[in-house]
Write a structure and sequence with these properties.
The protein has a single domain, classed as TIM Barrel, CATH 3.20.20. Helix 3 links the parallel strand 7 and strand 8. It is built from 5 helices and 9 strands. With 223 residues, the chain is an alpha/beta fold. The longest helix is centred in the C-terminal third of the chain and has 14 residues. The structure holds S-adenosylmethionine, ligand 2KA, iron/sulfur cluster and magnesium ion. S-adenosylmethionine (SAM) binds next to strand 5 and strand 7.
Length: 223
C-alpha cells in the first residue's frame, strides 16, 4: 500500500522556490553563467536576509525534473542555494546527481547545518554568521573540519563590530589556511569602500567581494 503523504509531497521531491539562469554574483565562481536552484525554507532569520521570499511556499519537484530544467539552460555551472538548502535532506542526493551530470556545482549554505555529507566534488560556500545577523549563535564550528581547499568561507559584514569579529575568527581558526575567505558588505549597511579600506589597513588574507547581481540588476527577482 502506498504511504500516505501530505498533498503535493513525495519521498524523492524537494521544495523549490525558483530555478533561474543568471550570472553568478558571488564567491569564487563570480561572473560565470550559472543556473540557480533555490530550495525553499530556512531555520535561520538573519536580520539583513535578502531572500525572505524563499522562507515559505515553493513547489515540490523530483530530482529528475530539476535536472531536466537545469539542462535546458545549457550552462556549465549550477549553484544550489536557498533559503537554507541543507535543511532539506534530499539536497544531499541532488548535489551528487548534479555532479554526476558533469556540472561545476556550488552550494551556498549558512554554516548552521552539518556539511559533512556534502559530495566532495561540490564547492561549498559556507557563511559564518557575524553578530549583527542576529544568528551567530547558530554557527556550527565543527563544520570547519570538513572544508576542502576548493571551498570558501564567507562572512557578511554589517558594521565595524562585525568586521572586528570576523578578523578575530579568521585569526583564531586560521581559516585562510584551509580555504579562501571572503568578506562581503551587507548590501546597504556598510560602505563597500570602508570595508575594503579596513582589509587593506589590516593586511588581511581575505578576498573582498560585492554581490555583482545587485550592481547589475538591483536585486530584481529571477537574477
Ligand atoms: C540568501 S543566502 C542562501 C544560502 C544560505 N542560507 C546562507 O545564508 O548562506 C546566500 C548568500 O547571500 C548572502 N546575503 C543574504 N542577504 C544579504 C545581504 N543583505 N547583503 C549581502 N549578502 C547577503 C548570505 O549571507 C549568503 O552568503
Ligand atoms: N546572480 C545571483 N548570484 C547569486 N549567488 C548566490 C546567490 C544566492 O542567492 O545564494 C545569488 C543570486 O541570488 N543571484
Ligand atoms: S541563513 Fe541564509 S537564507 Fe536563511 S535567513 Fe540567513 S541569509 Fe537568509
Ligand atoms: Mg541572493
Amino acid at each position: 500500500m502506498a504511504a500516505v503523504r501530505p498533498a503535493g509531497q513525495s519521498g524523492d521531491r524537494l521544495r523549490i522556490t525558483e530555478i533561474f539562469h543568471s550570472i553568478q554574483g558571488e564567491a569564487d565562481a563570480i561572473g560565470w553563467r550559472t543556473v540557480f536552484v533555490r530550495l525553499t525554507g530556512c531555520p535561520l532569520r538573519c536580520i539583513w536576509c535578502d531572500t525572505e521570499y524563499s522562507f515559505h511556499g515553493g513547489d515540490w519537484h523530483t530530482v529528475d525534473d530539476i535536472l531536466a530544467e537545469v539542462a535546458s539552460y545549457g550552462a556549465c555551472h549550477v549553484c544550489v542555494t536557498g533559503g537554507e538548502p541543507l535543511a532539506q535532506k534530499r539536497c544531499i542526493p541532488l548535489l551528487a546527481r548534479l555532479c554526476d551530470a558533469g556540472y561545476e556545482v556550488s552550494l551556498e549554505t549558512s554554516g548552521a547545518l552539518d556539511i559533512s555529507a556534502v559530495d566532495p566534488r561540490v564547492r561549498k560556500v559556507m557563511d559564518l554568521k557575524a553578530p549583527d545577523s542576529g544568528e551567530s549563535a547558530r554557527n556550527l564550528w565543527t563544520n570547519l573540519a570538513y572544508l576542502l581547499s576548493h571551498d570558501q568561507v564567507k562572512i557578511v559584514i554589517a558594521s565595524r563590530a562585525d568586521y572586528e569579529w570576523a578578523r578575530g575568527v579568521l585569526a583564531e581558526h586560521a581559516i585562510d589556511r584551509r580555504c579562501m575567505v571572503l568578506f562581503s558588505p551587507v548590501h546597504g549597511a556598510v560602505q563597500p569602500r570602508e570595508l575594503a579600506e579596513w582589509i587593506i589597513a589590516d593586511r588581511l588574507p581575505v578576498r573582498f567581494q560585492l554581490q555583482l547581481h545587485k550592481l547589475l540588476w538591483n536585486d530584481a527577482p529571477g537574477h
